[in-house]
Automatic annotation (TrEMBL):
Its EC number is 3.2.1.4. Coiled coil: none annotated. Belongs to the glycosyl hydrolase 9 (cellulase E) family. One of its GO terms (molecular function) is cellulase activity. Gene3D superfamilies: 1.50.10.10. This is cellulase.
Length: 344
């Protein structure tokens, strides 16, 4: 792409807490990945993560209020979830008590919003925070916590269970936000985001149960085992890969039947042509894309389990990093139950 791609900045006068905290979370998570293989890189990641977090926490302001031109695309509903998310990843990466304190005690009233079942999305990280902290209460039995921290961890875990119960179709508290064929479904634009990310974190939760030998959780008066929860996550993946009445795989390149007009410049414009950013001839073409965006997950079906394979149907046909990445997590978890790394 040769057109201008201007960068926007956040700073102390125009802070963007969501962006700074989400980046801090990503760097902290990455520091865990590289801890063994490249310890000095891991240390560098952690250093920048901690300084970004203190910038995010010290200069609070919503990025989409301070940089309003992003509002038509990715308008944030608030930054308190990103701050908790970053603090909890930093707690996992450093083991520092101050980060646990931040999430479980200091901001328990204002940010944690216990007891509200949430969804996991690019805008809403609270669900991920809950799952990451339930990991601590399931697996870190030897941890030494204050009474308030223990209570906070317990509340996060209870909130996670409420959320999981909301996702399970046979739970007495099952959400009715799902299609007739059983896919969790919240919104028309990029509908798979919610089902994929919910299934991914639910699968992690079921692995924590299994690893900690927790037999079951209670949804109202009904018990669900880790296997029940895993089965639910698999049902969502099955639907996405073609177990649906359209017999369509929403994962591009998987089987013969997948969307052929994915809304994606690299896939719809032949290689090596010079468009000058005016590729409408290819945008309006009725032919299948010349290039197959193998591994992209498109936006997803309507509430009535149908899909219209037109390139201009962006809300269904546009692949997103934030649903494709979560699908990688979901499929990996289905292939291999959680491998418990000793230092994480
Ligand atoms: C701070 O960020 C705002 C918004 O991106 C920008 O307009 C402004 O020039 C920046 N300030 C400095 C001192 O760079
Ligand atoms: C973005 O969200 C803010 C705060 O919730 C709201 O005031 C604004 O109208 C929204 N903008 C758009 C374009 O939806
Ligand atoms: C989904 O898979 C199940 C089990 O393999 C099968 O019985 C069912 O007919 C499939 N449903 C659709 C809509 O493909
Ligand atoms: C979208 O694309 C389809 C198929 O190419 C075409 O029939 C339809 O008119 C287009 N819709 C709009 C709003 O351009
Ligand atoms: C399914 O819902 C979409 C969006 O509401 C609508 O455009 C489409 O016609 C419906 N398809 C069927 C088969 O009912
Ligand atoms: C759907 O959301 C994307 C950003 O996630 C935006 O670019 C697109 O315009 C939206 N489409 C519709 C039809 O709302």
């Amino acid at each position: 792409m040769t057109e201008e791609r201007p960068l926007l900045q956040i700073n102390e006068t125009f802070p963007g807490t969501e962006v700074a905290a989400e980046t801090a979370a990503a760097l902290a998570a990455a520091s865990i990945v590289f801890r063994r293989g490249d310890p000095s890189y891991s240390t560098l990641l952690l250093k920048h993560s901690e300084s970004l977090f203190s910038f995010a926490d010290g200069f609070k302001g919503s990025y989409s209020i301070n940089i309003p031109q992003v509002q038509p695309y990715y308008n944030s509903s608030g930054y308190t979830d990103e701050l908790l998310w970053a603090a909890v990843w930093l707690y996992h990466a450093t083991g520092k008590d101050s980060y646990l304190q931040y999430a479980t005690v200091k901001h328990r009233k204002s940010f944690a919003d216990w007891g509200r079942s949430t969804w996991f999305s690019w805008d809403e990280k609270l669900a991920g925070t809950q799952v990451l902290l339930s990991r601590t209460s399931f697996l870190n039995e030897d941890g030494v916590y204050t009474i308030e921290q223990t209570e906070g961890l317990q509340k996060y875990r209870e909130s996670t269970e409420l959320m999981v119960c909301n996702f399970l179709p046979d739970s007495p508290t099952a959400s009715d936000s799902r299609t007739k064929e059983g896919l969790l479904w919240i919104q028309e634009n990029g509908s798979l985001q919610h089902s994929v990310s919910a299934s991914f974190i639910t699968l992690l939760f079921s692995d924590y149960m299994k690893t900690s030998k927790t037999d079951s959780i209670k949804c109202h008066d009904k018990d669900f085992t880790s296997e029940d929860i895993r089965r639910f996550a698999k049902s969502q993946a099955d639907y996405i890969l073609g177990n649906n009445s359209m017999q369509l795989s929403y994962l591009v390149g998987y089987t013969e039947d997948y969307p052929k007009q994915v809304h994606h410049r690299g896939a719809s414009i032949p290689a090596d042509v010079k468009t000058g950013c005016k590729g409408f001839k290819w945008f309006t073409s009725e032919e299948p894309n010349p290039n197959v965006a193998v591994g992209a997950l498109v936006g997803g079906p309507f509430k009535n389990d149908s899909y219209i394979d037109f390139r201009n149907n962006s809300m269904q046909a546009e692949p997103k990093t934030y649903n494709t990445a979560a699908l990688v997590g979901l499929l990996s978890g289905l292939v291999h139950p959680l491998l418990l790394m000793p230092d994480f």
